[in-house]
Design goal:
279 residues, mainly beta, Porin, twelve-stranded antiparallel β-barrel, two-stranded antiparallel ribbon, 52% strand, globular
Length: 279
């Protein structure tokens, strides 16, 4: 009886959370481009008694440039061209359906040297396997700070629903993220719609190739013009070397004026299990 009541209560929490997101979407603003952690999330969470350590390395070949007579771009931030972004992500599994992640953002270039950018925290819950949904589903909330020289909106919040599905060798993931500025030029605005999509195919047991898509459209009820939208396409490869490892490489192409045009990214992750964790 108690187990049934717990399942009903979990469903109520999910319904309330999703309803809250829908009610909040009344107006929106596109936040500053964030090329520190470029990843489409899958629905699964890190197992309990397990820690996932990841390094996200992103190098911008062609991005924003300094305004004439200044060392800063037009929005007052450091230019992204030839900047190396290194992000450390530490994720701890809490239960079979929840985890907490923590990010440390850094940036390095010949103009600025090596600098700390900011930190984010990200709790996440997923639909338990016992519910037997036809797709994987989870929900993350990410909040944190970035220095004003790297992001005009220094304090931000992200709400990210995650839906994915494996069909044979094909894998599909959709992250219709919503972002909100808590402090900065965009704090008086509402939520921004920033969808991420991944489609991949298992060529072998160890090599998966596909396409990742990242965007920031603006207000859901009236998208920004194509010129002001941020869109990136990443042909990417995943190497399935071991259940303990995560390896991803990609080259990003940004077709709009508001997007960094060429980015190379890589993700290397390692799971560490303490005691008897879920495999």
């Amino acid at each position: 009886m108690m187990r049934w009541m717990f399942g009903v209560e979990c469903r109520r929490v999910w319904v309330m959370a999703l309803a809250g997101m829908v009610l909040c979407v009344s107006s929106a603003v596109t936040l500053a481009q964030d090329n520190y952690e470029i990843q489409v999330y899958g629905s699964d969470t890190v197992a309990p008694k397990t820690t996932m350590l990841e390094l996200h390395s992103n190098f911008t070949i062609d991005g924003s440039k300094a305004a004439p007579g200044s060392r800063y771009a037009a929005d007052g931030t450091f230019p992204t061209t030839h900047a190396e972004h290194e992000t450390v992500e530490i994720t701890q599994g809490i239960t079979n359906w929840s985890e907490v992640g923590f990010y440390i953002f850094t940036s390095a270039s010949t103009e600025t040297g090596y600098q700390w950018v900011g930190d984010h925290i990200r709790p996440r819950v997923r639909v338990p396997d016992s519910w037997k949904w036809p797709v994987g589903a989870s929900l993350s909330f990410e909040a944190g700070y970035q220095r004003a020289r790297f992001s005009p909106d220094t304090w931000t919040l992200e709400i990210r629903p995650i839906v994915d599905k494996q069909i044979g060798r094909w894998y599909f993931a959709f992250n219709p993220a919503l972002e909100k500025s808590l402090h900065g030029p965009g704090q008086s605005q509402g939520l921004a719609f920033s969808p991420n999509v991944k489609v991949s195919y298992d060529f072998t047991k160890k090599i998966t190739g596909g396409l990742e898509y990242y965007a920031a459209y603006g207000e859901p009820t009236g998208f920004d013009s194509f010129h002001d939208q941020q869109q990136q396409f990443f042909p990417a490869i995943d190497l399935n070397l071991s259940p303990k490892w995560e390896v991803n490489f990609g080259v990003g192409i940004g077709p709009t004026a508001s997007t960094d045009h060429w980015i190379v990214k890589g993700i290397i992750g390692r799971r560490f299990t303490f005691g008897r964790g879920r495999q």
